[in-house]
Amino acid sequence: MKNRKNFGINCDRKKNSNSQLVIPDISVIGGGSIGLLLSSFLSKKNKVLLLTRTSKQAKIINENGVLVSGVTKFFSKNVVAKKYVSKLLKGAKILFVCLKNYDTQKVLTEIKQNVSLRTLIVTCQNGLGNRELISNIFPKNKVVESIITFGGTKKMNFKVDLLGSGQILLPKNFRHKDMLNIKNPFIKISYVSNIKEHLWKKFIINCSINALGTITRLKNGDLVNKKSGTIELIKSLVKEAVVVARKYKIKVSDKVFNDVVKICNKTKNNINSMLQDIINGKGVTEIEFLNGKLLKLAAKNGLYLPANEMVYDLVKNIEHMNRKIYG
After folding, report:
1. Tell me: domain 19-193, CATH 3.40.50.720, correct?
2. Residue 22's pLDDT is what?
3. pTM of this prediction?
4. Which of 43, 254, 305, 323 has the fewest CB within 10 Å, making it most exposed?
5. Residue 119 near residue 143 (C-beta atoms within 8 A)
Protein backbone atom coordinates (compact mmCIF):
# COMPACT_ATOMS: atom_id res chain seq x y z
CA MET A 1 0.00 0.00 0.00
CA LYS A 2 1.49 3.31 -1.00
CA ASN A 3 2.85 5.74 1.58
CA ARG A 4 1.40 3.83 4.51
CA LYS A 5 3.04 4.75 7.80
CA ASN A 6 4.42 2.21 10.24
CA PHE A 7 2.83 2.85 13.64
CA GLY A 8 5.21 0.65 15.63
CA ILE A 9 3.48 -2.64 14.88
CA ASN A 10 3.50 -5.02 11.94
CA CYS A 11 0.61 -3.73 9.87
CA ASP A 12 1.13 -5.81 6.71
CA ARG A 13 -2.40 -6.03 5.37
CA LYS A 14 -3.33 -6.92 1.84
CA LYS A 15 -6.27 -4.90 0.72
CA ASN A 16 -9.23 -7.24 0.49
CA SER A 17 -10.79 -6.61 -2.91
CA ASN A 18 -13.68 -8.88 -1.90
CA SER A 19 -14.36 -7.14 1.43
CA GLN A 20 -17.75 -5.96 0.21
CA LEU A 21 -18.76 -9.60 -0.27
CA VAL A 22 -17.80 -10.76 3.22
CA ILE A 23 -20.89 -11.77 5.20
CA PRO A 24 -20.26 -10.90 8.85
CA ASP A 25 -20.93 -13.11 11.86
CA ILE A 26 -20.98 -10.03 14.06
CA SER A 27 -21.68 -6.38 13.32
CA VAL A 28 -20.65 -3.47 15.51
CA ILE A 29 -22.22 -0.07 14.91
CA GLY A 30 -20.30 2.99 16.07
CA GLY A 31 -16.71 3.85 15.19
CA GLY A 32 -15.81 5.48 18.51
CA SER A 33 -13.44 4.08 21.11
CA ILE A 34 -15.68 1.23 22.35
CA GLY A 35 -16.75 0.27 18.83
CA LEU A 36 -13.12 0.09 17.67
CA LEU A 37 -12.06 -1.92 20.72
CA LEU A 38 -14.97 -4.35 20.58
CA SER A 39 -14.69 -5.00 16.85
CA SER A 40 -10.94 -5.60 17.11
CA PHE A 41 -11.32 -8.03 20.06
CA LEU A 42 -14.12 -9.97 18.37
CA SER A 43 -12.41 -10.17 14.97
CA LYS A 44 -9.85 -12.66 16.29
CA LYS A 45 -12.42 -15.44 15.89
CA ASN A 46 -15.28 -13.94 13.86
CA LYS A 47 -15.93 -12.09 10.64
CA VAL A 48 -16.73 -8.61 11.95
CA LEU A 49 -18.38 -5.70 10.15
CA LEU A 50 -17.82 -2.29 11.76
CA LEU A 51 -20.33 0.35 10.73
CA THR A 52 -18.98 3.89 10.92
CA ARG A 53 -20.53 7.34 10.60
CA THR A 54 -18.34 8.37 7.65
CA SER A 55 -17.06 6.68 4.52
CA LYS A 56 -13.69 8.26 5.27
CA GLN A 57 -13.26 6.32 8.53
CA ALA A 58 -14.42 3.10 6.89
CA LYS A 59 -11.89 3.54 4.07
CA ILE A 60 -9.03 4.18 6.53
CA ILE A 61 -9.91 1.07 8.58
CA ASN A 62 -10.13 -1.09 5.46
CA GLU A 63 -6.69 0.14 4.40
CA ASN A 64 -4.96 0.01 7.79
CA GLY A 65 -6.89 -2.36 10.04
CA VAL A 66 -7.56 -1.40 13.67
CA LEU A 67 -4.59 -0.62 15.90
CA VAL A 68 -5.06 -1.00 19.65
CA SER A 69 -2.50 0.50 22.01
CA GLY A 70 -2.42 1.60 25.65
CA VAL A 71 -2.19 -1.14 28.30
CA THR A 72 -1.98 -3.72 25.51
CA LYS A 73 -0.95 -3.51 21.90
CA PHE A 74 -2.18 -5.51 18.97
CA PHE A 75 -3.23 -5.06 15.38
CA SER A 76 -6.46 -6.42 13.94
CA LYS A 77 -6.56 -6.82 10.17
CA ASN A 78 -9.83 -8.75 9.99
CA VAL A 79 -12.34 -5.94 10.56
CA VAL A 80 -14.30 -4.89 7.48
CA ALA A 81 -15.70 -1.37 7.78
CA LYS A 82 -18.60 0.25 5.95
CA LYS A 83 -20.62 3.43 6.36
CA TYR A 84 -23.71 2.94 8.57
CA VAL A 85 -26.20 1.85 5.89
CA SER A 86 -25.02 -1.51 4.54
CA LYS A 87 -26.91 -4.55 3.21
CA LEU A 88 -24.16 -6.74 4.71
CA LEU A 89 -25.92 -6.30 8.06
CA LYS A 90 -28.53 -8.90 7.11
CA GLY A 91 -26.04 -11.72 7.61
CA ALA A 92 -25.01 -10.82 11.16
CA LYS A 93 -26.11 -13.04 14.05
CA ILE A 94 -25.27 -10.31 16.58
CA LEU A 95 -25.37 -6.52 16.29
CA PHE A 96 -23.51 -4.64 19.03
CA VAL A 97 -24.74 -1.06 19.40
CA CYS A 98 -21.87 1.22 20.46
CA LEU A 99 -23.50 4.52 19.52
CA LYS A 100 -23.82 7.55 21.73
CA ASN A 101 -27.37 7.58 23.15
CA TYR A 102 -28.27 10.78 21.36
CA ASP A 103 -27.55 9.15 17.95
CA THR A 104 -29.47 5.92 18.59
CA GLN A 105 -32.91 6.85 17.24
CA LYS A 106 -31.67 8.45 14.02
CA VAL A 107 -28.98 5.94 13.11
CA LEU A 108 -30.84 2.73 13.96
CA THR A 109 -33.93 3.95 12.10
CA GLU A 110 -31.73 4.47 9.04
CA ILE A 111 -30.32 0.93 9.13
CA LYS A 112 -33.52 -0.83 10.23
CA GLN A 113 -34.38 -2.24 6.80
CA ASN A 114 -30.99 -3.94 6.61
CA VAL A 115 -31.21 -5.79 9.94
CA SER A 116 -32.54 -9.35 9.92
CA LEU A 117 -35.32 -10.26 12.32
CA ARG A 118 -33.06 -13.10 13.50
CA THR A 119 -30.27 -10.73 14.54
CA LEU A 120 -29.69 -10.47 18.29
CA ILE A 121 -29.16 -6.80 19.20
CA VAL A 122 -26.88 -5.97 22.14
CA THR A 123 -26.69 -2.44 23.52
CA CYS A 124 -23.28 -1.49 24.95
CA GLN A 125 -24.28 2.07 25.82
CA ASN A 126 -24.16 4.21 28.95
CA GLY A 127 -27.25 5.05 30.97
CA LEU A 128 -30.72 3.56 31.32
CA GLY A 129 -33.50 3.19 28.78
CA ASN A 130 -31.38 2.03 25.84
CA ARG A 131 -32.99 -1.41 25.51
CA GLU A 132 -36.47 0.11 25.54
CA LEU A 133 -35.50 2.69 22.90
CA ILE A 134 -33.97 0.04 20.62
CA SER A 135 -36.90 -2.35 21.15
CA ASN A 136 -39.26 0.37 19.91
CA ILE A 137 -37.24 0.57 16.69
CA PHE A 138 -36.86 -3.23 16.35
CA PRO A 139 -40.03 -4.62 17.99
CA LYS A 140 -39.53 -8.12 16.50
CA ASN A 141 -35.85 -8.52 17.42
CA LYS A 142 -34.51 -9.72 20.74
CA VAL A 143 -32.64 -6.85 22.41
CA VAL A 144 -30.38 -7.41 25.43
CA GLU A 145 -28.29 -5.15 27.62
CA SER A 146 -24.59 -5.44 28.32
CA ILE A 147 -22.16 -3.57 30.53
CA ILE A 148 -18.71 -2.52 29.33
CA THR A 149 -16.35 -1.84 32.25
CA PHE A 150 -13.25 -0.89 30.25
CA GLY A 151 -12.59 2.49 28.70
CA GLY A 152 -10.77 3.75 25.66
CA THR A 153 -9.67 6.88 23.88
CA LYS A 154 -9.92 7.15 20.11
CA LYS A 155 -6.63 8.57 18.84
CA MET A 156 -7.24 8.32 15.09
CA ASN A 157 -9.93 6.89 12.85
CA PHE A 158 -8.30 3.46 13.10
CA LYS A 159 -6.29 3.77 16.31
CA VAL A 160 -7.60 3.47 19.88
CA ASP A 161 -6.03 3.28 23.34
CA LEU A 162 -7.30 0.67 25.80
CA LEU A 163 -7.07 2.49 29.13
CA GLY A 164 -7.25 -0.48 31.50
CA SER A 165 -8.49 -3.98 32.04
CA GLY A 166 -12.22 -4.66 32.30
CA GLN A 167 -15.16 -6.88 31.50
CA ILE A 168 -18.06 -7.30 29.14
CA LEU A 169 -21.05 -8.39 31.22
CA LEU A 170 -23.89 -10.18 29.43
CA PRO A 171 -27.08 -11.97 30.55
CA LYS A 172 -26.56 -15.55 31.70
CA ASN A 173 -28.97 -16.90 29.06
CA PHE A 174 -27.14 -15.10 26.24
CA ARG A 175 -27.18 -17.13 23.03
CA HIS A 176 -24.16 -17.31 20.69
CA LYS A 177 -21.74 -17.58 23.65
CA ASP A 178 -19.49 -19.65 21.42
CA MET A 179 -18.88 -16.61 19.21
CA LEU A 180 -17.58 -14.41 22.02
CA ASN A 181 -14.27 -16.05 22.77
CA ILE A 182 -12.00 -13.06 23.40
CA LYS A 183 -8.45 -14.16 24.08
CA ASN A 184 -6.99 -11.06 25.66
CA PRO A 185 -5.61 -10.94 29.23
CA PHE A 186 -7.07 -7.46 29.76
CA ILE A 187 -10.65 -8.21 28.68
CA LYS A 188 -12.92 -10.83 30.22
CA ILE A 189 -16.48 -11.82 29.27
CA SER A 190 -18.79 -12.73 32.16
CA TYR A 191 -22.38 -13.96 32.09
CA VAL A 192 -24.51 -12.79 35.02
CA SER A 193 -28.03 -13.59 36.20
CA ASN A 194 -28.73 -10.12 37.59
CA ILE A 195 -27.83 -7.91 34.64
CA LYS A 196 -30.17 -5.12 35.79
CA GLU A 197 -28.35 -4.70 39.10
CA HIS A 198 -25.01 -4.46 37.30
CA LEU A 199 -26.54 -1.97 34.87
CA TRP A 200 -27.77 0.20 37.75
CA LYS A 201 -24.39 0.04 39.48
CA LYS A 202 -22.63 1.34 36.38
CA PHE A 203 -25.40 3.91 35.94
CA ILE A 204 -24.86 5.25 39.47
CA ILE A 205 -21.10 5.36 38.94
CA ASN A 206 -21.47 7.23 35.64
CA CYS A 207 -23.94 9.68 37.18
CA SER A 208 -21.38 10.37 39.90
CA ILE A 209 -18.36 10.83 37.64
CA ASN A 210 -19.27 11.99 34.14
CA ALA A 211 -21.23 15.17 34.77
CA LEU A 212 -18.95 16.37 37.57
CA GLY A 213 -15.85 15.61 35.49
CA THR A 214 -17.38 17.57 32.61
CA ILE A 215 -18.15 20.59 34.79
CA THR A 216 -14.74 20.66 36.50
CA ARG A 217 -12.74 19.31 33.51
CA LEU A 218 -10.95 17.00 35.92
CA LYS A 219 -9.61 13.55 35.10
CA ASN A 220 -11.16 10.67 37.03
CA GLY A 221 -8.35 10.42 39.56
CA ASP A 222 -8.47 14.13 40.37
CA LEU A 223 -12.19 13.93 41.13
CA VAL A 224 -11.48 11.86 44.25
CA ASN A 225 -8.38 13.81 45.26
CA LYS A 226 -9.15 15.65 48.50
CA LYS A 227 -7.41 18.75 47.14
CA SER A 228 -10.00 19.03 44.36
CA GLY A 229 -12.85 19.61 46.81
CA THR A 230 -15.25 17.35 44.93
CA ILE A 231 -15.44 14.33 47.26
CA GLU A 232 -18.47 15.53 49.23
CA LEU A 233 -20.40 16.31 46.07
CA ILE A 234 -19.67 12.83 44.71
CA LYS A 235 -21.00 11.38 47.98
CA SER A 236 -24.21 13.38 47.54
CA LEU A 237 -24.61 12.30 43.91
CA VAL A 238 -24.16 8.65 44.90
CA LYS A 239 -26.48 8.86 47.90
CA GLU A 240 -29.30 10.38 45.86
CA ALA A 241 -28.93 7.77 43.10
CA VAL A 242 -28.99 4.92 45.60
CA VAL A 243 -32.27 6.21 47.06
CA VAL A 244 -33.85 6.16 43.59
CA ALA A 245 -32.48 2.69 42.79
CA ARG A 246 -33.99 1.24 45.95
CA LYS A 247 -37.35 2.81 45.11
CA TYR A 248 -37.26 0.61 42.02
CA LYS A 249 -36.32 -2.42 44.14
CA ILE A 250 -32.78 -2.57 42.81
CA LYS A 251 -30.28 -4.08 45.24
CA VAL A 252 -27.46 -1.59 45.70
CA SER A 253 -24.52 -2.06 48.04
CA ASP A 254 -23.99 0.48 50.83
CA LYS A 255 -20.38 0.56 49.62
CA VAL A 256 -21.11 1.88 46.14
CA PHE A 257 -19.35 5.18 46.98
CA ASN A 258 -16.22 3.15 47.72
CA ASP A 259 -16.62 1.54 44.30
CA VAL A 260 -16.73 4.99 42.71
CA VAL A 261 -13.49 5.96 44.45
CA LYS A 262 -11.80 2.69 43.41
CA ILE A 263 -12.83 3.14 39.79
CA CYS A 264 -11.67 6.76 39.74
CA ASN A 265 -8.29 5.72 41.14
CA LYS A 266 -8.02 2.75 38.78
CA THR A 267 -8.78 5.01 35.80
CA LYS A 268 -7.04 8.06 37.23
CA ASN A 269 -5.76 9.34 33.89
CA ASN A 270 -9.07 8.89 32.06
CA ILE A 271 -11.05 11.79 30.66
CA ASN A 272 -14.65 10.60 30.83
CA SER A 273 -16.65 10.24 27.61
CA MET A 274 -18.99 13.15 28.38
CA LEU A 275 -16.08 15.52 28.87
CA GLN A 276 -14.49 14.17 25.67
CA ASP A 277 -17.66 15.15 23.79
CA ILE A 278 -17.47 18.69 25.14
CA ILE A 279 -13.73 19.01 24.45
CA ASN A 280 -14.40 17.82 20.88
CA GLY A 281 -16.90 20.65 20.41
CA LYS A 282 -20.14 18.70 20.54
CA GLY A 283 -23.28 20.51 21.57
CA VAL A 284 -24.95 17.44 23.05
CA THR A 285 -23.84 14.82 25.57
CA GLU A 286 -25.30 11.72 27.21
CA ILE A 287 -26.53 13.73 30.20
CA GLU A 288 -30.19 12.96 29.40
CA PHE A 289 -29.53 9.20 29.71
CA LEU A 290 -27.56 9.64 32.93
CA ASN A 291 -28.43 12.33 35.49
CA GLY A 292 -31.39 13.44 33.38
CA LYS A 293 -32.83 9.93 33.41
CA LEU A 294 -32.21 9.68 37.16
CA LEU A 295 -34.12 12.92 37.75
CA LYS A 296 -37.10 11.64 35.74
CA LEU A 297 -37.18 8.38 37.69
CA ALA A 298 -36.96 10.34 40.95
CA ALA A 299 -39.79 12.69 39.95
CA LYS A 300 -42.10 9.72 39.37
CA ASN A 301 -41.61 8.86 43.04
CA GLY A 302 -41.84 12.41 44.35
CA LEU A 303 -38.11 12.60 45.11
CA TYR A 304 -35.99 15.74 44.89
CA LEU A 305 -32.31 15.29 44.05
CA PRO A 306 -30.58 18.67 44.54
CA ALA A 307 -27.02 17.51 43.76
CA ASN A 308 -28.01 15.69 40.57
CA GLU A 309 -30.25 18.54 39.50
CA MET A 310 -27.38 20.98 39.91
CA VAL A 311 -24.88 19.01 37.81
CA TYR A 312 -27.56 18.30 35.22
CA ASP A 313 -28.35 22.00 34.83
CA LEU A 314 -24.67 22.92 34.60
CA VAL A 315 -23.95 20.33 31.90
CA LYS A 316 -26.99 21.51 29.93
CA ASN A 317 -25.55 25.03 30.10
CA ILE A 318 -22.16 23.76 28.88
CA GLU A 319 -23.91 22.03 25.96
CA HIS A 320 -25.67 25.32 25.12
CA MET A 321 -22.39 27.23 25.19
CA ASN A 322 -20.75 24.66 22.91
CA ARG A 323 -23.59 25.01 20.40
CA LYS A 324 -23.14 28.79 20.40
CA ILE A 325 -19.38 28.48 19.90
CA TYR A 326 -19.18 25.56 17.49
CA GLY A 327 -22.61 25.70 15.90
Report:
1. yes
2. 66
3. 0.90
4. 254
5. no
